[in-house]
Amino acid sequence: MSRNPSASCSPAEAWAALAPGLAGQPRVRLSKDAGKSYPQKHERNLTEALPSVPAAVRIFGKDGTCAAIFLDFDSSVGGLDGVQADVRAVQTWLHSVGARWIEDYSPNGGRHIYVPLAQRVTFAEARDLVEALGTRYRTLDKTPHQNMLHGCMRTPGSPHKRGGYQELAMSLSMAYDIVRRPNSATVWTTMTNDLAAEIKAVRALRLQGTFSPATSDAPGTNLPAGRMSRAMQVLAQTGLYDTNRYATDSDARQAVLVGAAAAGLELVDVERRMLQGTWPGLASFYARYAYRHRLPALRRDWMNALTYLSKKRAKGDGKNNVRRSPTSQPNTQAGQLKALNPISNPDAEHRFIRTWRSALKIREVNYQQSRTGMARRMVLRALGEAAHMTASRFIEFGVRSIAVATGLDHTTVGLHLRELRAEKDPLVTLVEEARGTKGDLYMLTLPEELKAAAEDATWQKGKVHALRPAFRELGLPAAFVYEALEHSPGLSTTQVVTVTRLSRSAVHEALEILAAWNLISRNAGRSWSVVAATSLHQLAEQLGVLEAVAAQIQRYRDDRIIWREWLAKNVNTIAELLSPDDDYPWETFEGPPDDWSLSDMAFGRTG
């Protein structure tokens, strides 16, 4: 099946005919940076309409299986001659095992081969085969099949980053016939049998490597309060595990379930994560069962996990660590913040804070539409949210707390706070600098120039939010647009531009992102409304953002421990004012971390 210059079809026809049949699930990722990256936030429902930018379909489905093998031959590795030689060799091999395939080529000389399968195969099976082929052919890029969550590839018809499109090297009718009549399970068995030695070798190579999915946490019952270990969450999401620890997929999936049960999750929580695609790795371990038997098998394993935990606790092995699940997280990462003193009249304080929010809305027009301007607006929202939570215009905390609440780095937060309090007639005033374990004390301020207008303005409905976790991935513009539609449902695109003070192009992209993840929908009158049934928290978990929040919290917790240790050695009284002249590494930590537990803030716990 070599390139046939006379066999021509339009890119739109190739895309519509082939992309839906090759994709592991009906989702596609768009590249808004000319093909350099395909970020998760630009994922959309896959339709037959050809995207206007480079587009890559998802290889794996929510159940952790794929409908086709995607072979990507990269001309940057072995040059055009190397690609052509490898492609010819793979075609010869595919023919020898009785397989049928589709081929296309890129404007830069790269080639893709797609092998559709009648019976979907698991992530582990597909990875083994592609890695085995990679030992034979140097230009074959194995990475698309090595990541269940982010593996994606352009299919025939997709625009290319250098201009032009992925063009078929065969007639569309022949390619479409291969999609309609994919390779049988017998062909797949023949392929894997022929590669048995190479598959054994790549598995052995993985055994020799150091498996570290970001932590070496074991999945035992001694888990952090209310959380699965990082290793178990990675295993559930990716299906990757240390084969020195777990001999089979069955052992690995049972470890995930034990970790989930020990962390306080219920069976329904696990089922939801599997069905919605949040844990495709775990789902892939059940793909060997017929679809109707998968959930019953999960329930049997769940009962075994509960039995195991019950026996462990009866023997006194470890403490009871079944704690509240982090799924009951508040709307943002920035849970409860400290007020300076109890407020005698909280109602009056809330009225002041709402008036301050009106002033903030007026002042926001001064902030640029750049990322810096949007970040500054988000820092102010974090201050407003903290004030409402404590019923006080006085709030005492450090930059790390705001960093968790806004998704920014703590050094960036410090810069924004300095700029905000240096403004003429500022919205926030530094009352007292940090001392010892005490954070900076700030006060929300009504600027004189805005006071009359703010007091006359109608108070904004609803809550004020810092950056809710899902928007760490979806972006700041999407956060502001979502907020606007929460407070004022039924806005048109033009009205959203006016309310958010973002550029029209930024609003259009944000609306597109929000609609793609079913967070908003378009009404009959071409206005927009929030889809109440879509959970921001569940989406954040699906996007993998909660782990980024947890990692940031752990980093700052470590900072706080170091800071306390230094204080214990160098400061006689907690009220003693510290200065950059002391020997503490200020250049590293830039001020004392917060006095309270950031994990409590992030997951809404008190005490």
Query: Portion of residues in helices?
Result: 40-55%
Query: What structural class results from the helix and strand content?
Result: alpha+beta
What's the alpha carbon Rg, rounded to whole Å? 28 Å
Specify the overall morphology. Answer: globular
- How many helices in DSSP terms? 24
pLDDT averaged over residues = 82
- What is the count of β-strands? 15
Strand order of the largest sheet: 7-4-6-5-9
Strand share of the residues? 5-15%
Q: Kindly report how far apart the N and C termini lie.
A: 68 Å
Which residue ranges are poorly predicted, with pLDDT under 50 across at least 5 consecutive positions?
1-6, 210-226, 318-331, 334-342, 574-607
Main sheet makeup: 5 strands, antiparallel
What does this structure look like?
The protein contains 24 helices and 15 strands. The termini are far apart. Helices cover 48% and strands 11% of the residues. With 607 residues, the protein is of the alpha+beta class. Helix 1 packs parallel to helix 4 (172-180) and helix 13 crosses helix 15 (410-421). It has helices at residues 11-22, 75-96, 123-136, 172-180, 185-194, 196-208, 230-238, 249-262, 267-275, 280-284, 291-314, 346-363, 371-390, 399-406, 410-421, 448-456, 470-474, 476-487, 493-500, 504-516, 536-543, 545-570, 586-589, 598-603; strands spanning 27-30, 43-45, 55-58, 65-73, 102-105, 111-122, 140-141, 152-154, 167-168, 338-339, 394-397, 428-432, 440-444, 520-522, 528-530. Strand 12 (428-432) and strand 13 (440-444) form a beta hairpin. The strands form four sheets. The protein has a five-stranded antiparallel beta sheet with strand order 7-4-6-5-9.
